[in-house]
Amino acid sequence: MKIAVTGINTSVGKTLITAMLAFAWHAKGIRIEVQKWVSTGDSHGSEDIKLVYEAMARPVPEAGLNHAPYCLKFPASPHLAAKLEGIHIDKERLVNATHALEAVCDILLIEGAGGPFSPISHDLLFADLIKELSIPVILVTTTSLGTINQTLVHLEALGHRGIQVIAVIFNETSVTDPLIAADSMDFIAKRTDIPTFGPIPHMTPPFPFTHHACIHTATAVLGLLEAKNDSE
Fold it and tell me: In the predicted model, what is the mean pLDDT of the chain?
């Protein structure tokens, strides 16, 4: 089973949520692999993959393996980082890496860079490829002022493309006014039939993935995935 983790923007906690899910599901004995098609900011490896695999207390996959096919130096959108290094992002390389990892695990989590409409290359958006591979999405959003608009826009755009959103997870990227957070979550939950979870409390390293909100959310999302799998 493949699941994409994307967000309403960059820096909303996609890696944190990916690590949270991977930590909890790995602890249940589920075979988990995590992939990031293109990482930027370090050509020697993916910092996001490193965080997730360290959370699972597993060896960190090296740059260039199927978990992190492209690791680029410049900290920017993948299409720009690749252009600056003269690297061509080969879609088939990403597809083959995804199929190879999916064959050796129960759940493959694919973390995107930026939001779902961020470009992988000049010819390919993240949303293009997850649609082509029929990968459902977990959408990570925040509890901050403005999240209602950003979240609903993303849900509508993904729905327009026929991309299934399994769940929306609210993540506190900073200390948020509790009234705004509660109202935002309630409003979005009532405007959509997509299950919503959270908030995941604002966390700093070392991340407490055993926090009850983390475990509860990961367990609930796993239940949704199992129900989806049984119905197919």
Answer: 94
